[in-house]
Amino acid sequence: MRAEREAARVERVGAPASRESAPGTGAGDPFPLERVVDEDGLVADESRVLLAGEELLRLHRAMVLDRALDERMITLQRQGRIGFYVGAIGEEAAVLGAAAAMAPTDWIFPCYREHGAALLRGMPLAAFLCDLLGNAAAPGKGRQMPCHEAWRPARYASVSSPIGTQISHAVGAAWAARIQGEEMVPLVYFGDGATSSGEFHVGLNFAAVRHLPVIFACRNNGWAISLPTDRQTAAATVAQKAVAYGMLGVRVDGNDVVAVHAATRRARARAAAGGGPTLLDLVTYRMEGHSTSDDPRAYRAAAVVEPWRRRDPIERLRRLLLRRGLLDDAGVERVRAEVAAEIQVALAEAEARPPRPPLESLFEDVYAEPLRQQREQLAELAGAVAADPRVADPRHADA
Amino acid sequence: MRAEREAARVERVGAPASRESAPGTGAGDPFPLERVVDEDGLVADESRVLLAGEELLRLHRAMVLDRALDERMITLQRQGRIGFYVGAIGEEAAVLGAAAAMAPTDWIFPCYREHGAALLRGMPLAAFLCDLLGNAAAPGKGRQMPCHEAWRPARYASVSSPIGTQISHAVGAAWAARIQGEEMVPLVYFGDGATSSGEFHVGLNFAAVRHLPVIFACRNNGWAISLPTDRQTAAATVAQKAVAYGMLGVRVDGNDVVAVHAATRRARARAAAGGGPTLLDLVTYRMEGHSTSDDPRAYRAAAVVEPWRRRDPIERLRRLLLRRGLLDDAGVERVRAEVAAEIQVALAEAEARPPRPPLESLFEDVYAEPLRQQREQLAELAGAVAADPRVADPRHADA
Amino acid sequence: MAALNLLQAVNDALRTEMRRDPRVVVLGEDVGRFGGVFRATAGLQAEFGEERVVDTPLAEGGIVGAALGMALQGLRPVPEIQFADFAFPAFDQILSEVAKYRYRSGGQFACPLVIRMPYGGGIHGGHYHSQSPEAHFIHTAGLKVVVPATPRDAKGLLLAAIRDPDPVVFLEPKRVYRAARGEVPEGDEALPLGQAVVTRPGTQVTVVAWGAMWHEADRAAREAAAEGIDCEVIDLRSLQPLDLDTLVASVDRTGRLVVVHEAPRTCGFGAELVALTQERCFLRLEAPAVRVTGFDTPFPYTLENEYLPRAPRILDAIRRTVRF
Amino acid sequence: MAALNLLQAVNDALRTEMRRDPRVVVLGEDVGRFGGVFRATAGLQAEFGEERVVDTPLAEGGIVGAALGMALQGLRPVPEIQFADFAFPAFDQILSEVAKYRYRSGGQFACPLVIRMPYGGGIHGGHYHSQSPEAHFIHTAGLKVVVPATPRDAKGLLLAAIRDPDPVVFLEPKRVYRAARGEVPEGDEALPLGQAVVTRPGTQVTVVAWGAMWHEADRAAREAAAEGIDCEVIDLRSLQPLDLDTLVASVDRTGRLVVVHEAPRTCGFGAELVALTQERCFLRLEAPAVRVTGFDTPFPYTLENEYLPRAPRILDAIRRTVRF
Ligand SMILES: Cc1ncc(C[n+]2csc(CCOP(=O)(O)OP(=O)(O)O)c2C)c(N)n1
Ligand SMILES: Cc1ncc(C[n+]2csc(CCOP(=O)(O)OP(=O)(O)O)c2C)c(N)n1
Ligand SMILES: [Mg+2]
Ligand SMILES: [Mg+2]
Predict the structure, then answer these.
(1) Are both D283 and D173 inside the same structural domain?
(2) Same-domain status, C49 and C8
(3) B2-351 topology per CATH
(4) What is the secondary structure of A171-198 as a DSSP string?
(5) Nearest-atom index, ligand 1, CA of A225
(6) Taking 80 as the threshold, does the pLDDT of residue B34 lie above it?
(7) Which residues, in sequence order, are bridge partners of residue D54?
(8) How many Å lie between the alpha carbon of A38 and the closest alpha carbon of chain C?
């Protein structure tokens, strides 16, 4: 029957691919999971490791820092020292493998779990921590929630909460660079949840139809707050969504930093050579709650997370490094200690800054120059504070 | 090289399929163009003609009416008797073949070229014409531009201008019907331009993930005002966009009313049986300007339209009917004459109604009952008209 | 009567109405299994099943658009937008479709539905978890806009909103989701939409507010009383339809008006209230009406308490108005 | 000096600035090969090529989002929204992203860009080709909002908008695209943003308008003069920043205010202007400020001339205000 033939046709591109499954063989599977380093740290095809030892060590350190930072900040949030935190525990390979494959002048358009990439790019840790504290030294001047950093010197764009909005920004930046004759390939991150947004669709379509050099990196971490990916989309893979745009889609083991890096580098080379955009489906897993505001026990059984523990991306890279003799157990410990110290120092530095930006900062940067309203309202607020200091008393907060 | 392998993979699902090309063989082409009746009115596989002679004649008449109506209304617009018109010349098979395959209780969510479907569903022609005139008898009370009709008795939803918004309405209606235990499969129309909208993406994804019975009918007519489809998307077909949702996508010769009908009926049966939604890519062509406001000579060479003249959907059906002896030349003429007379009578009826809805109609239906503002503003307007009749003088319009 | 907080009252209203009316369905991000990020829909999926309490993909436009389609087909959907700040991706559906469907079809179709949104600041949410977009909705004819300040009103007004024939944007002041507690009747009695309530009668100045800011206005009025200034406080509850009679009657008596809202001042609903009262109470006004509002900036993070028009700033405005 | 209509003046400004500044690019639906459905961008693609004058797919959110990305990378994009009514799919990008990018990044990034939109009624466009959404943009801190009424202003203000460091929503009154004709300087001189112009000095009542309604206000003032009423007419030109000084100075002199706009009355910009003047001119006002506006309904088709606040209705309001 014809109807059955058609059903089969969809199956072909949409067969439910388990997110835990071993990498596809490539035969018959249009979007096989690319992997270079297996869970034991073994490499089947050495030619696919494109990173030198030194680079692997640098990535390892960045991932360890990312993890340690997340753990420490979650604690700080519990202690009430910061208001909120959203981390990347378990997703470090996806975040850092992709970022490391880009040129330093390539823009990064982050979602909200990519501060590891900002630090890799050179954002000072203390500056990032000031942003978390929202203090007077915060580069973002304490205007957004924690983890909504921006870092212009590294072309690391401004994190925003609304899901998916950054995607078309990357498309525009690529377009502009082509007009300017600059070789620049933006990397834009987003989650599996974001693939349902209109923004995703619109952005990828623009990029494909203009054949723009953009790398769309989906941190496909299995969850959008409480919604598992299979309730987010009926597509078996995120990679196949590229078909809608006549775009290349590649599915990668997002917990294998070497594979993520290789796929991203390939996509970048292709884009820079005029080959157009790529959608990277980085299959990984959100090990913790969505953020410090979330308690996943309400919707996710602990057991489903278990299998992912042994796929830990940092452990996997460590096994590779140990096997290759690039690092020994003491070295691993040393990295951990260094990173902990780095956080400690930066935290001390950040917490030493005045905790609150000045009143006038409230009215700056709305426009290049404050308009009448901002000037008048600053005066009004200053007057009200003078009349009653409680106007500026943060403790007077609850109803 | 791996990169080449991947490029090939995309080619497989995204090879540029010419919109003028003959139907695919099926081998290797995941989205072959389905056709039943060829341009000479010949049928290769009789088993695929699902329509009885009587139904074919009914569809023929509906298509002839649609065409004659469009032609007449374009003339009326030029004469200044109506303000605007947007028709379906060349797209009658796509519009009517799909509508005819639905059950009478299935909702139709139109775009803006589907008035032929409204009439097929039983909207009186005079009522439609009153809507075009925006007169006192218009079902829409003269509030929207011409061709923005709605017809509740036939579950024909309200046409809206913003592109794509109707798509998720169809999804919601299907969802509701399932909750209510009613077998109802909505048919929603939209253009190739609409496939770029966020609305398209969001709607199809919802339908697929909830496995809802909806038929998404893309009138893929080659143009979105001045933009040809290949600048709208880099995908070779609209059908392949279904892959993104794990949905069935079917590519149909949209100028073959028998094929459109068959594909839609199949999709409906599948949906009603719990098989989920289908995206129909109805490949057709916009023979005229976008609307009476448009002059396609500014962006489209006459020559590109030429090949489509011999693919005229009405001519093709006529050839089939003639071959089958269901109609002869005299019969064809008779249908034309009947239809012309029907339009003439309805037009006279419509033009005999008071040309302007009453003042108070301006303030009705904003809410179920007018609020204070609407009541006060009606009084204010009536007062102003009393003070100066020019307030309600339509001629006092230009600056 | 049970003592509930505002969040529990919302939950109670949804449960009550879903039991009473099988047409009522709830949909949105995380509303099902999880029960909503604020837990407003907690327990509903367990009671009413996965088809009536639906976890949707991440797309607000789709949530509202699907709800509209459901309403056309006869259901009474209650979509949730996780934060009012994320209503913007659904603006085309809300402003172009939901608001205009009845009018544009000549009254053939209607789409009664209630779009619930937690809104407002005071939870350290920064730019995108703090905004008060009511003016956008009020400016759009065809929508009703309701904002409860207390648990009792939250329940009664939400019941009324779901039963209303018109689409309603139901803004829930998340700052007082837990802080506002009070007695809530156990039945299914709705409170009428479009009626403000004078929560504190007074003679010298009328203070108008809604949502979380009503609590601040009330506090400011109590402090003012201690200084000998007698304020009348009005909780509008429904911004569209607006109970203008109550407002005008009050201002005609007091001759002075202070309007409080969290949204930025320029083109906020405060401007409309000032315009309406000067149109209708022109000869009774003894001082310019004063707006105590959020500032014309995006919503900040660290300095959110400076940004919000809390009691001390309202009190300052009350004093200035009385002294004018 | 050449006599141009408003559409030609817009085209002239774009061409002038694209010649002067290679960073300027134009993008939108049908703006390239076709030159725009109103032909505002006619001839630009032929002169500047397909990369600088870009036909985009049908997605307003993508148009604005891409423009933002271009601005970050150093271009000066001028996206076109085909009709202001179709800005809603881009509202998340405009209100959440464009407006807040500078502020939220602590001033690290800016996104200077100009979103051009034909707006307003009077072309028999019904619901979705007639709306005036300026209040939504004015309520959003971070955006500037400019509306020319004449060809000269269209050119001079568009040049200024493109050179401005902040994002500008540039609303073009399509009702007078062709009807408004006048001398337009040939050079590349910009007019400053934020300056209103008193187009007719007068003593008895101030009439404020912008865009197409300025022409109606002017006509009403001329008719009023024939009746012996001396109106001062102000064309605001820039709604954000607002030239409040000019407005206040005028009302302080005349003591009476009539505000005219096409958008629905409730929460329209008229409310803000009334609120601002009563705050600042309280003791000088001799009559309540009156708003002559579109009604609180969706924009109609057949009765659009009844809906629009044309000269006769403005004149009626002027008379009532003067007689108060
Ligand atoms: C437009 C919008 N809607 C809703 C939200 C609330 N929200 C924040 S994160 C999130 C889930 C995102 O999931 P995903 O894209 O998979 O990213 P992840 O958190 O898994 O990295 C939701 C619904 C939002 N921020 N923006
Ligand atoms: C959101 C939105 N943007 C822009 C427009 C203006 N517009 C009207 S029709 C159209 C092209 C639609 O093309 P398509 O979807 O292919 O439908 P067709 O006209 O070819 O049937 C455009 C851009 C609109 N109506 N809505
Ligand atoms: Mg996720
Ligand atoms: Mg088309």
Answers:
(1) no
(2) yes
(3) Rossmann fold (3.40.50)
(4) HHHHHHHHHHT-----EEEEETGGGGSH
(5) 11
(6) yes
(7) D27
(8) 32
